Amino acid sequence: MRKPKLSPAKSKIFSPKPTKIVVTAGPTRAFIDPVRYISNLSTGRMGYEIAAQAVRKRFDVTLISGPTYLKPIRGVRMIFIETVDELEESVIKEARSADILIMTAAVNDYVPVHVNKKKLRRKKGSMNLKLRRTNDIVARAAKLSPKPIIVGFSLETERLVAHSRAKLKKKNLDLIVGNEYSRFKNPFGENKPSVLIVNRNGKSYRLPKKSKKEIAKKVLSEAIALTA
Questions:
Q1: What residue ranges define each of the domains in the chain, with the CATH number in brackets?
Q2: Catalytic residue positions?
Q3: Per the CB 3.0–4.6 Å rule, which of 30, 59, 105, 149 could disulfide with 38?
Q4: Alpha-carbon distance 103 to 123, whole Å?
C-alpha cells in the first residue's frame, strides 16, 4: 500500500524569524588626555552572560561592549566601543531594528569639557577639571518608534527600591534590575549580587545572592515575556 504524500505545508518545518536582542556591557571611558581617563568598576560580566544566554536560545544577538577582559561570544555579533559617544551611536543605530534592548553598560554621566591632545604634566598646586553632562542614551532609545522592550540597570548606594522605581518611570523602561553597592555588597565581576527586579506593571521581587548566569536567565525570561 502506497503511503500518502504529505502536502508541502505539512512536509516543511517553518521556524519563526529570531528575535533581535541588543545588549550593552562594560564600562565607558571619558578621556582627560591621550593616556588618562575617567571610568568605573564595571567588568561587563552581566551583559556578556545575558548575551550568551540569549544566543543559546537561538536569538539574533548583538553585544555592544566597552573595554573588558572578557572574550567575544561565539554566535554573537560584537560591536566594540570605548566612549559614551560611540556607545550612543551604536545603541541608537541597533535599537531601531531591535525587539529587546538590554542596557547593562555602566555609562559615564559626566565627561571632561576639554580633552588635552598631549599628556598633562605635573604642576604645583591643584588642577580643576570641568565636566559636562552626557546624553541619556536609554531615555533617547525609549523615544524610538517603534520602541523596543527596554531593560535598564540601576546601581544604588541608598534607597534601592525608590530610586529603581523612579528610574523605571522617568526613562520609560519596561524592566529594571537594581543593584546595591556598599562596603559589604559588591555586584561587580564574579561576585554574586542580590538584585531587585521591577517591571512596568509594578511587579517586583528580589533575587538574593545569585550568580550572574542565574540572573541573566531570569532577566532574559522577564524581557521575553514582555514582548507577548
A1: 18-110+129-225 (3.40.50.10300)
A2: 40
A3: 30
A4: 40
